[in-house]
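Archive maintenance. Older records in this collection stored only the sequence; we are now back-filling the structure field for every entry so that each record is complete. The fields below show one back-filled record exactly as it appears after the update. Entries are processed alphabetically, and DNA-directed RNA polymerase subunit is next in the queue.

ARCHIVE ENTRY
Title: DNA-directed RNA polymerase subunit
Organism field: Gossypium lobatum
Length field: 115
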Amino acid sequence: MFYLSLIEHTLRLPPHILHLPVDEAIKSELETLFLDKVIAKLGLCISVYDIRSIKGGFIFPGDGASTYTVEFRLIVFRPFIGEIIVAKLKESDASGLRCKSGRIFFYLYGFGCLV
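Back-filled structure field:
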């Protein structure tokens, strides 16, 4: 259901957040990029767990942003086939069900006519 995934990403930090400490700025930017997004073959990103390493800090010509290579771990939600998930039914129609489990909204389809 929930997994810890190690990811390496090249991250561009815009100039307007460079006044923050580097680790805080990087975590903020990672959360903006990854949280509440689905990554193929990985799952739905729930939270940045920790930052393992930060390398770089290069500024490329013509760009005011610094670029870092960051290795970090994400908590991801990836249900397996047959897993039972407790959720509240929000809406149903002929095409499927719309449900909510905590902060996560999802759509189940292919059940035929449920109305």
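Update note: The helical segments are 22-34. The chain has two domains: 2-77, 85-115.
Entry marked complete.
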